[in-house]
């Protein structure tokens, strides 16, 4: 670990928190597109989400643990498929449920950041054609407007869509009839979906600001930290632009932009270069590279300019080795601190993830700060949770 306990560049009001996504923790999200996919043999999903972490019923426990650990912020998503299970039919009970979550966070001293779309959509919306369907942007904006009772008061930050570049990449895979990802880099995103989600974001920003102009609204980008092999700078820029930069550029004028990174991708003259065979890897088979978040922050800041604050909305590691988890977070925070010291406007750091959860096909990739016991759903904070929570509470590194 390289972060100096006496080095405290993180300003007052800095967001210290953890993130989750509804489908990955709630359980039984039966009206979503992912629920249908998980139960379709043709999709070849390794395992379904089923009860997930049962956080739909246990969200109070989750918030209690985060608050007790010392975190000051909690990012969670509301589920469109619950709020609008059938087109044009909005569940007042579900809206009230998510409003109780907002109020519960505030009551525990946790600032809520609400994500309106975190990968999943209602089945009826998928049947229409998703974001590229005629009228899809208007339908998404209408859903955002219906979320007004949830976010109108006490929600300082709203994220419209999580990782729109990954939405476009997955759409491109689906159109080409492909499955899975290459060992390095990302497939080419679907251009039509790229334009559609950008339009949906801009419509959602307008809707959120009409609900309450004091809400700080933005979206989050999956940063792959493309690093050029010497001589491949132009290839790297061309590879990165449709997969990342176009989405960062679309955030100009937003109140903030979310940076999300986990590892790096090297680019050579012929494209992505896999990590060396002897590289340390995480449970997701990504290269262990804590410094990634620093590179992601610097690239995002350079591209979007000094007028848009940055928030690290996801960063973490899937591992069963708790010392390596702490080491990863220490290295990542060292990189974040260096960015702040260099004058980059970074407003917060939210770890992925608060809980061991459903990682889109598997429960084996344990990113969580808090373990969830299968069957009983008992929550048990890991050493990294105490470490990071102490940092948020004390503003310096706690001793192990």
TrEMBL record:
SUPFAM superfamilies: (Trans)glycosidases. InterPro entries: GH, Glyco_hydro_1. Pfam families: Glyco_hydro_1. One of its GO terms (cellular component) is cytosol. This is Beta-glucosidase. GO terms for biological process: carbohydrate catabolic process. Belongs to the glycosyl hydrolase 1 family. Keywords: Glycosidase, Hydrolase. GO terms for molecular function: beta-glucosidase activity.
């Amino acid at each position: 670990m390289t972060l100096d306990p006496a080095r405290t560049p993180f300003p007052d009001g800095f967001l210290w928190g953890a993130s989750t996504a509804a489908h990955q923790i709630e359980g039984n999200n039966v009206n979503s597109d992912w629920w249908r996919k998980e139960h379709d043999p043709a999709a070849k999903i390794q395992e379904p989400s089923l009860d997930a972490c049962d956080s739909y019923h246990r969200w109070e426990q989750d918030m209690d643990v985060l608050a007790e650990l010392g975190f000051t912020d909690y990012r969670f998503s509301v589920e469109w498929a619950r709020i609008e299970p059938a087109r044009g039919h909005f569940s007042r009970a579900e809206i009230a449920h998510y409003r109780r979550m907002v109020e519960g966070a505030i009551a525990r001293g946790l600032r809520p950041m609400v994500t309106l779309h975190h990968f999943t959509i209602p089945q009826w919306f998928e049947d229409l054609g998703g974001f590229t369907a005629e009228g899809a942007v208007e339908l998404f904006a209408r859903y955002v407007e219906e979320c007004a009772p949830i976010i109108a008061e006490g929600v300082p930050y709203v994220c419209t869509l999580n990782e729109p570049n990954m939405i476009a990449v997955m759409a491109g895979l689906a159109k080409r009839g492909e499955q899975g990802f290459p060992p390095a880099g990302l497939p080419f995103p679907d251009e039509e979906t790229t334009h559609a989600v950008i339009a949906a974001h801009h419509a959602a920003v307008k809707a959120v600001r009409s609900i309450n102009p004091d809400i700080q609204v933005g979206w989050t980008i999956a940063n792959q930290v493309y690093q050029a092999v010497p001589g491949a700078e132009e290839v790297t820029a061309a590879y990165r632009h449709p997969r990342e930069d176009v989405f960062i550029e679309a955030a100009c004028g937003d109140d903030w932009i979310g940076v999300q990174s986990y590892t790096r991708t090297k680019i050579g003259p012929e494209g992505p270069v896999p990590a060396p065979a002897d590289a340390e890897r995480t449970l997701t088979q990504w290269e262990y590279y804590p410094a990634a978040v620093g590179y992601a922050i610097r690239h995002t800041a350079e591209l979007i300019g000094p007028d848009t604050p940055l928030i690290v909305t996801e960063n973490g590691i899937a591992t069963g080795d708790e010392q390596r988890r702490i080491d990863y977070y220490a290295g990542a925070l060292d990189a974040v601190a260096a960015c702040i010291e260099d004058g980059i406007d970074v407003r917060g750091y939210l770890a992925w993830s608060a809980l061991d959860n459903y990682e889109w096909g598997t429960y084996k990739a344990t990113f969580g700060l808090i373990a969830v016991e299968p069957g009983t759903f008992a929550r048990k904070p890991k050493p990294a949770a105490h470490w990071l929570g102490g940092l948020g509470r004390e503003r310096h590194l706690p001793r192990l």
